[in-house]
Amino acid sequence: MTQLKFATRLNSFASKPTAEWPELSGKPTVLQMATRAAKVDGLTDLDLNYPDHVADDPAVLARQIGDLGLAINGFAMRYYTNPAFKIGAFTNPDPAVRREAIDLTKKGIDAARAAGSKLMTIWLGQDGFDYAFQADYHTLWQHEIDGIREVCMHDPDCAISIEYKPNEPRSYSLMPDCATTLLAIKDVDMPNLGVTLDFAHVLYADEQPAFAAALIARYSRVLGVHLNDGYAKRDDGLMVGAVHTQQTIELLRQIRKDGYDGAIYFDTFPDMTGLDPVHECEVNIQTVKRMLTVVDRLEQDNRLSGAIDRQDAVSAQAVVQELMLG
User: Fold this and answer.
1) Which of 21, 47, 233, 273 is the 20 to 30 A CA-CA neighbour of 317?
2) Can you give the pLDDT of all 326 residues of the chain as single tens digits?
3) Does residue 302 lie in a domain region?
4) Total structural domains in the chain?
5) What is the CATH number of the domain that holds 233?
């Protein structure tokens, strides 16, 4: 994390469209949203959804985004093109639908590579179940493992990152938490596979974000970090540090300690309530920079390392609160 890269969710910049495009009828285009995102002071990268954001030549789109002063951090798969995906993409009971999902992912990987990126994030939210007696769990798991392995094998130079989430849109996701995701990665056994940590997902999986990051670094790789916040009940997509300030700082400390050098991506939802997305993203960047300054101070303070060695929570809190609040 020596050279900071900040990426963001492109769809955030459709928020409050009339403020940016008074004459707009309908939704803004990808380039319109990217042009608006380029106004964010400190933003370096965008992530694009596939196939939603990539209707034409991805190399041309990458050049257009580059002309705005931004790079493409990575692509993220979305499985909405076929209504049949609602009951599973890689785990669909119909082998033809499973094949369609896998082939779509391969096309997405090719598009990401054509756009100059080496990262594909797969959020398999459709892969899961809603009822008891709905699925054979061994079969479901095997389909998932086989599908992930095949897309990893498609381009060994492209990192494939699993973004886990407890539920939504399915009542139960097949990979709802850190441990289950690591089990899947062990089964797949491909060197280009890793994990994207989404802060709000981790919270409502009832996990401590820094602990999840440490486990992933031990058994796999953290390939992406999505910062946001929430109340640990759903995917709120609130601004960074709005609720769980200490946990966010601890996560930043942990991923720095473990050598994470990827982008910090803001998976926040200003569009849900019509916030100014440029201002919102700028504040997120400023917040992370301030938090990293706190991390620097914490790392230079021997009192904290001593308290952690002793598992002395009171002394550790005293140091953290002092360095955060003065």
Assistant:
1) 233
2) 457 999 999 999 999 999 999 999 889 999 999 999 999 999 999 999 999 999 999 999 999 999 999 999 999 999 999 999 999 999 999 999 999 999 999 999 999 999 999 999 999 999 999 999 999 999 999 999 999 999 999 999 999 999 999 999 999 999 999 999 999 999 999 999 999 999 999 999 999 999 999 999 999 999 999 999 999 999 999 999 999 999 999 999 999 999 999 999 999 999 999 999 999 999 999 999 999 999 999 999 999 999 999 999 999 999 999 999 98
3) no
4) 1
5) 3.20.20.150
**Which amino acid, 47?**
D
Give the C-alpha separation, 13 to 259, whole Å: 31
Paired with 74 in beta bridges are 47
Residues 276, 278, 281, 287, Cα dihedral to 10°: -90
What range does the domain containing 212 cover?
6-291
Furthest-apart CA atoms within the chain: distance in Å: 62
- With respect to residue 303, please indicate whether it lies within any of the assigned structural domains: no
Residue 305 lies in a domain: no
Spatial distance between the Cα atoms of 107 and 98, rounded to a whole number of angstroms: 14
Q: Are 40 and 7 in contact (CB under 8 A)?
A: no
Distance of CA 116 to the CA centre of its chain: 19
Specify if 297 maps to a domain: no
Minimal CA–CA distance to 40: which of 63, 71, 66, 8? 8
Q: Which amino acid is at 276?
A: D
CB 251 within 8 A of CB 209: yes
| 128-129 and 172-173 strand pairing | antiparallel
**CA dist 27 to 39, 145, 308, Å?**
19, 37, 50
- 3-state DSSP call for residue 47? strand
Rounded to an integer, what distance in angstroms lies between the CA atom of residue 141 and that of residue 212?
22
Nearest of 82, 28, 71, 24 to residue 53 by alpha carbon: 28
Cα(25)–Cα(18) distance, rounded to whole angstroms? 9
On whether the CB atoms of residues 146 and 105 are closer than 8 A, the answer is no
CA angle 165, 250, 239 (to 5 degrees): 60
